[in-house]
Amino acid sequence: MTAPASNGHRLAPQRRSKIQRRIKRAGLDALLVTDEINVTYLTGFSGDSSYLWLTPDKAILLSDSRYSTQISEECPELETLIRDAGRTTCDLAIEVANSSKALTLGIEPESLTKSLHDRIQAGCGCELTDTDGWVESLRAIKDKQEIQTIRHSIQIAERAFSVIRAQITPEQTEREIAHNLEHQIRGFGGTGCAFAPIVGVGPRGALPHGIPSNRRIGEDPFVLIDWGAKYNGYASDLTRVLVTARIPPKLRKIHEIVLKAQLAAIAKIRPGATLRQVDRAARGSIERAGFGKQFGHGLGHGFGLRIHETPFLSPIADGQLTAGMVVTIEPGIYVPGWGGVRIEDDVLVTKHGHEVLSRLPKSLDECLVDM
Ligand code: ZN
Ligand code: ZN
Question: Rounded to two decimals, what is the model's pTM?
Answer without folding.
Answer: 0.94
